[in-house]
Amino acid sequence: MRKKTFYSLLFVYLVFMGTFTVWFFRKFWETKGLLEESWYSGSPQEVVMRYSGLATVPLVISVFTVMFTRMFTSAGNTLESTDTEFLVVQKNILQNNLEQTFLFLVNYFPVATELSNETLALVGLLFVSSRLLYYLSYPLGVLVGFQPLRGPGFILSFGLTVSLLKLNIYKLVEKVNLTTC
């Protein structure tokens, strides 16, 4: 009975998230070129602030998923020590989204003065896309029994974060070298 409940919840979840993802990309990705100018207009700080807010969307979705699972099922009963498989998966996704979003934002803000506005917008959109891909592929991997499905979303988001970190370190070392010469 427990597995049937898990698969029912997972199916509803995947349908909802799939619908949301299609809507998201149809709404925000219809552009004439790679990105419309309005997507990266303003100062670099304004662009970074805009996409930093957007970067929290997968995190907020994770929070709401865990919250609704706790509210509408017995999975979130804090008096019991057992969680359903669905809730365990959602908690893992929430934890990973929290970690990745924090690391990304800490490295995204300092590059505002180093990259063009269009590049800043693309990096922000790639991060959000990669986290949504992770959010969808993790439970799908659990459903079909193939955990590496979550890999591409994780690798893309972590790769972006590491790239930003390397850029920040390079710029820091460059500035230190210039001031000590």
What does this structure look like?
76% of the residues lie in helices and 0% in strands. It contains 6 helices and no strands. It is elongated and about 65 Å long. It starts with a helix and ends with a helix.
Unreliable segments of 5+ consecutive residues: none
Shape assignment: elongated
Helix count?
Answer: 6
Looking at how many chains there are and whether they match, the oligomeric state comes to: single chain
Mean pLDDT across every amino acid position? 79
The secondary structure category is mainly alpha
Report the strand count.
0
Percentage of residues assigned to helices? over 70%
Please give the largest β-sheet.
none
Strand content: under 5%
End-to-end distance: 71 Å
Radius of gyration: 19 Å
Q: Note the run of SSEs as H and E.
A: HHHHHH
What would you say about this model in short?
It contains six helices and no strands.
Helix and strand arrangement:
Elements: H1 2-28, H2 44-55, H3 57-72, H4 85-108, H5 117-144, H6 151-180
Helix pairs in contact: 1-5, 2-5, 3-4, 4-5, 4-6, 5-6
